[in-house]
Known about the structure:
Blueprint: H1 5-12, H2 21-36, H3 41-51, H4 58-105, E1 109-118, E2 124-134, H5 140-157
Antiparallel strand pairs: 1-2
Helix pairs in contact: 2-4, 3-4, 4-5
Amino acid sequence: MSMTAAEALKRDKPKRPFRSSFQKGVDRAQIERWKVEGHTEREIVELLAAQRNYRLSRAQIHMDVAFVEDEWRRRAAEDIASAKGKELAGLRLQEAELWSAWEKSKLDAETIRQKVTAQGADKLTPAEITKTKEGQCGNPAYMRLLLEVRQRRSKLLGLDKPDKVDATTGGEAIKFVVKLRSDELP
């Protein structure tokens, strides 16, 4: 079987150097930095070629940029999930503290009054001590705060219906004014 000249050239043409996984990671970290700095893919091709002993195609840079952007989206989703988890943990702690304070606010209030008598120039002695207990119904401020914690949790988890606002008017009523020319009157 004879080989054409084009096939021979294709067979003898050296292949692009293979990047190791480590080198891909190093390249992608640099590409990420340049992308954040606002460089175009064409510029990144040239910048990377100036630093390496190989040259990547624009198509390869495009794939690396796509990989970096996918990583950004993945990390953003993880960051949001982590922030939500931290916020929910804080809300659980606040709710527990508020319930404890609510229960304490319902305990009987005890008032101690002491009458003293003077026995000399600088001496005072207790003459009568009275203790009174008064029932409490609980401080309503704790219930209000508990409700706020629950509302915050519901909003964070997306349990509430979203507020509907007309984006074009900011929720304001639209007034229509129609001007007719005299020849358009019925």
